[in-house]
């Protein structure tokens, strides 16, 4: 038996991996960046993969159960993640697998009927939350907005200004995943620049504890139609059961969603799942420009089209100048004369 890896696998090996995972009740995750396999001649006996700091698609052929192959796979993945600079690892799996991954130093973050989220830090979430500033004890309600801000738009500012006007304090979490046009650092800075006038708002990265539907791993859910429901339930229960109580959050703000069916479904699930956990959901009509809802996707389209007029209608001045004048400006070939110095 020999071990081989790919970043990620290609060609025939990738085809075999697809088949192996399917036989194991899993689906290949297209976000995978690294895969290791144990081969018995030309047959996969065990496998596991990484997507950034997330462990995915760990499986062992039942014929080889009891031969400690999972340990070899996990050791290889953890060594590779360390080599890549990731010491804090996340893992999403079926709840039945908790004991397996506990033996490799992973600890449960949240568990639902269909999904278990684990991390390799015993108190990782607690440490993340304790690093945030506490909300004023005398004020209420305490609000929260979770957003991608890819990039930060007038719509985001409108929603958060409303939350700030209605709440004693507002936590704004910017998703930390690195999958969009703008990097996590770019998006975080644009949000901070655009909200600097609000004294009762704290902007922070979400860390690995709040993710979008695009990056939430559902490879272990055979029924793709069920995947969105699994994502909504796990993400919202983690927020409602652990994040909100620790920070004193009592109200979560979202904008109406006329464009994305997945986000609209998420908002509907939010209105079902959070109130029983003592978190009110405030859904705010989305800001419109020329009768069109303001959205980050429209901004990205305007960037591709080099449409400065549209950018002025959709972005606060802080975001526009960040895009034009900083490192993010490389994404937008707008003439230099349009930029401020």
Written account of the structure:
This protein has eleven helices and 14 strands. By secondary structure, it is of the alpha/beta class. The protein folds into three domains: 2-87, Gcn5-related N-acetyltransferase (GNAT) (Aminopeptidase, 3-Layer(aba) Sandwich), CATH 3.40.630.30; 92-124, no CATH class; 137-288, 3-Layer(aba) Sandwich (Rossmann fold). Helix 6 packs antiparallel against helix 11. Residues 335-341 have low confidence and may be disordered.
Q: Supply the CATH class of the largest domain.
A: Alpha Beta
Number of helices: 11
- Global shape: globular
Give the SSE string: EHEEEHEHEEHEHEHEHEHEEEHHH
Q: Give the CA-CA distance, first to last residue.
A: 62 Å
CATH superfamily of the largest domain: HUPs
Q: Report strand order across the widest sheet.
A: 1-2-3-4-5-7-6
Give the number of domains. 3
> What is the CATH architecture assignment of the largest domain?
3-Layer(aba) Sandwich
Would you tell me which CATH topology of the largest domain applies?
A: Rossmann fold
Based on secondary structure, the structural category is alpha/beta
Biggest β-sheet strands, sense, barrel? 7 strands, mixed
**Chain-averaged pLDDT:** 91
Global Rg:
22 Å
Low-confidence region ranges: 335-341
Brief account:
37% of the residues lie in helices and 21% in strands.
């Amino acid at each position: 038996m020999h071990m081989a890896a790919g970043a990620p696998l290609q060609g025939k090996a990738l085809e075999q991996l697809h088949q192996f995972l399917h036989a194991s009740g899993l689906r290949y995750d297209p976000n995978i960046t690294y895969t290791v396999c144990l081969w018995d001649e030309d047959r996969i006996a065990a496998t596991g993969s990484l997507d950034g700091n997330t462990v995915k698609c760990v499986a062992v052929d039942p014929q080889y159960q009891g031969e400690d192959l999972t340990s070899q796979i996990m050791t290889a993945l953890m060594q590779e993640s360390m080599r890549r600079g990731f010491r804090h690892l996340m893992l999403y799996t079926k709840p039945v697998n908790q004991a397996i991954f506990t033996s490799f130093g992973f600890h449960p973050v949240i568990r639902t009927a269909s999904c278990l989220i684990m991390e390799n830090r015993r108190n990782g979430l607690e440490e993340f939350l304790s690093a945030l500033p506490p909300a004023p004890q005398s004020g209420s309600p305490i609000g929260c907005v979770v957003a991608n801000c890819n990039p930060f738009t007038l719509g985001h500012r409108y929603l958060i200004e409303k939350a700030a006007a209605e709440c004693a304090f507002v936590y704004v979490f910017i998703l930390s995943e690195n999958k969009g046009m703008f990097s996590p650092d770019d998006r975080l800075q644009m949000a901070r620049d655009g909200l600097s006038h609000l004294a009762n708002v704290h902007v922070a990265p979400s860390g690995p504890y709040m993710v979008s539907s695009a990056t939430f791993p559902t490879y272990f859910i055979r029924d793709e139609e069920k995947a969105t429901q699994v994502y909504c339930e796990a993400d919202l229960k983690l927020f409602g059961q652990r994040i909100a109580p620790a920070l004193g959050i009592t109200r979560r703000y979202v904008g109406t969603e006329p464009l994305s069916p997945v986000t609209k479904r998420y908002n509907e699930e939010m209105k079902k799942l959070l109130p029983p956990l003592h978190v009110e959901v405030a859904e705010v009509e989305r800001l419109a420009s020329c009768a069109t809802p303001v959205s980050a996707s429209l901004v990205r389209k305007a960037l591709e089209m080099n449409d400065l007029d549209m950018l002025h209608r959709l972005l606060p001045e802080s975001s526009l100048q960040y895009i034009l004048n900083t490192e993010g400006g490389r994404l937008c070939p707008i003439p230099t004369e349009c930029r401020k110095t």
